[in-house]
Write a structure and sequence with these properties.
Radius of gyration: 25 Å
Largest sheet: 6 strands, parallel
Strand order of the largest sheet: 3-2-4-5-7-6
Helix content: 25-40%
Strand content: 15-25%
Structural class: alpha/beta
Shape: globular
Number of helices: 22
Number of strands: 22
Distance between the termini: 34 Å
């Protein structure tokens, strides 16, 4: 994926708390280094090996520590903070189990290219390698799933390491960086050197020769069925992508990570592509003769059977990560650069070559010379597919279809809410039925698929974007995996709205059991087998325990009023939406299959 470097505003001039020649602890140096990087929030859970750092944080007037109730809740909150703001998220844990509890969060950030700086305390240097209490070699454990990691062995290296860690986490293709700091180094006194330069190579985005961009424009002009396939790598170039579409009239399909980079409400939006994407997006890509892949990695949930994916199309792949070019699907033309820079260059060529020429066609669709060859045919086919395959779902009398609840939420928030999710059916329904209009408004564990992501990510998003409407759309199973974060949300008084689709099952597993297995759902049922008539566990009791307003809704006729109340109530609110466990996803392309094998039914 391709992301621009350092997209957030530069921090204000830093005013140090210490005199330049004043010795201070390593922990204070670490905190000051974070302050110099513009950090305002740290999600830190204390322990014996990190106490010095927490004491230093308490002395800071710039950084506020937000106490999660579990280390995984802390790193997922840092992840949500980074996704919503574009700034690096920072989390802090102790050694041993504290450090190992953030591994899923590190893997998630690595999969989805999220800039996170994770800081872990470590046993003193003299005890390392002795199997000391709560000692684990965390840098060795997480090396394959980080962009880089550091074991600090010299207190004087802290300023340099922190500066370099933030540069690595945010430049090129972003990702997680871990800094492991032994406790004795945290206590050591020294006068820091803030001026040591960092020397990094290969992270700077660069634009390739103009000839390649001109070749892309030539391919566009000759194409009859071009389609843009946009991913998370377009997160920082949404405006450039919209301008490109305005100039060319090419329709856009997005990945799960790319939701919001191009508005779903635009007439040229094909919405989400892939296994759980729209029939329209999959049809357009399958029929395309030119696939413009911007900031994507051709992952299996998009391509299915990779050899059959866009098999008749010439493929242009633009991505900042050279390892992604040709890894899963060989392109006909590729550029290894930031998508933002490439689109800026392409747009300049399009604007220079000719002024936009609007041609009157059916339905008043604007056309330009770059899609004259086939826009009429291509757009007619798209319109036919829209009419042939409108969004649909199964209804269950007075029971609430989860898809309708998301459509209603979209209507009541005008598509402007920041949507966080766990992982499962609810995640895909939220992707399919909420009309995502803005980048960084869709926060979901896409590559790793980590259940329990939604609630803590919403906490991070609410802190990153105060004043925004933040909604965690979750499933009962996923929600319970980090339900302890309700306590943090309450004490921080974060206005997180929680809409739980409670079907008393692991819904995605149940659906797979129903379609591909022997329909034995004993291990996907989350209720009380001895009393299946009761709602178990009672989500309202969890909310009550944390003094959070909550309600349950069971009938379609009561849904609008319930969601309106959730949105209007100040502070956090939990809405337990009871949905039938028979509700299934709108569309499914089986693993390893192609679009032509897609399954569609009146779920």
């Amino acid at each position: 994926m391709s992301f621009s470097n350092r997209t957030w505003a530069a921090p204000k001039p830093f005013i140090p708390r210490f005199a330049a020649d004043e010795p201070r602890k390593g922990s204070d140096i670490l905190v000051e280094a974070l302050e110099r990087e513009g950090v305002s929030h740290v999600f830190g859970y204390p322990g014996g090996a990190s106490m010095e750092i927490h004491e230093a944080l308490a002395r800071s007037s710039i950084i506020r520590n937000v106490l999660p109730r579990h280390e995984q809740g802390g790193i997922f909150a840092a992840d949500g903070y980074a996704r919503a703001s574009g700034r690096p998220g920072v989390c802090l844990t102790s050694s041993g189990p504290g450090a190992t509890n953030i591994i899923s969060g590190i893997a998630d950030a690595n999969f989805d290219s999220i800039p996170i700086v994770a800081i872990t305390g470590q046993v003193p240097r003299g005890l390392m390698g002795t199997d000391a209490f709560q000692e684990v070699p965390i840098t060795d454990i997480i090396r394959p799933i980080t962009k880089f990691n550091y074991l600090v062995l010299d207190v004087e290296e802290i300023p340099f390491i922190v500066k370099e860690a933030f540069e690595i986490a945010t430049s090129g293709r972003p990702g997680p960086v871990l800094i492991d700091i032994p406790r004795d180094i945290q206590k050591e006194m020294v006068i820091p050197n803030w001026n040591k330069p960092i020397m990094l190579h290969g992270n700077a985005s660069r634009l390739q020769e103009k000839a390649l961009l001109e070749e892309i424009v030539r391919l566009i002009s000759q194409s009859k069925r071009p389609v843009v396939y946009a991913g998370g790598g377009c997160m920082n170039c949404s405006e450039e992508l919209r301008r490109f579409v305005e100039l060319t009239g090419i329709p856009v399909a997005t990945t799960l990570m790319g939701l919001g980079v191009f508005p779903c409400t635009d007439e040229l939006s094909l919405r989400m592509l892939g296994m759980h994407g729209t029939m329209l997006a999959n049809y357009a890509v399958d029929r395309s003769d030119l696939l413009l892949a911007f900031g994507v990695r051709f992952d299996d949930r998009v391509t299915g059977k990779v050899e059959a994916f866009a098999e008749n199309a010439e493929i242009v792949h633009i991505d900042i990560d050279p390892t992604e070019i040709g890894k899963n699907k060989k392109p006909h033309l590729s550029i290894c650069t930031d998508v933002k820079l490439a689109l800026e260059g392409i747009n300049r060529i399009l604007e220079k070559n000719a002024a936009k020429q609007v041609i009157a066609v059916e339905k008043d669709i604007p056309m330009t010379k770059y899609n004259d060859n086939a826009s009429l045919t291509c757009r007619k086919e798209i319109e036919e597919q829209k009419e042939k395959h409108p969004p649909s779902y199964r209804t269950f009398g007075e029971a609430i279809p989860p898809q309708s609840a998301i459509q209603l939420l979209d209507e009541l928030t005008n598509g402007d809410a920041i949507i966080c999710t766990g992982v499962g059916q609810h995640q895909m329904w939220a992707a399919q039925y909420y009309k995502h209009k803005h980048p960084r408004h869709w926060l979901s564990s896409s590559g790793l698929g980590a259940m329990g992501f939604g609630l803590p990510a919403a906490k991070g998003a609410a802190l990153a974007k105060p004043g925004a409407v933040v909604v965690d759309i979750d499933g009962d199973g996923s929600f319970m995996m980090n339900i302890q974060e309700l306590a943090t949300i309450r004490v921080e008084n974060l206005p997180v709205k929680m809409m739980i689709f409670n079907n008393q099952h692991l819904g995605m597993v149940y659906q797979y059991e129903d379609e591909y297995g022997d329909r034995n759902s004993m291990h996907s049922y989350l209720g009380n087998p001895s009393n299946q008539a009761e709602v178990f566990p009672d989500m309202l009791m969890f909310a009550k325990a944390c003094n959070i307003a909550a309600a349950r809704v069971t009938k379609k006729g009561e849904l609008r009023e319930a969601i309106e109340k959730m949105l209007k109530t100040p502070g956090p609110y939990l809405l337990d939406v009871m949905v039938p466990h028979e509700a299934q996803l709108m569309q499914l392309i089986p693993d390893g299959s192609s679009f032509k094998d897609s399954i569609r039914g009146a779920q």
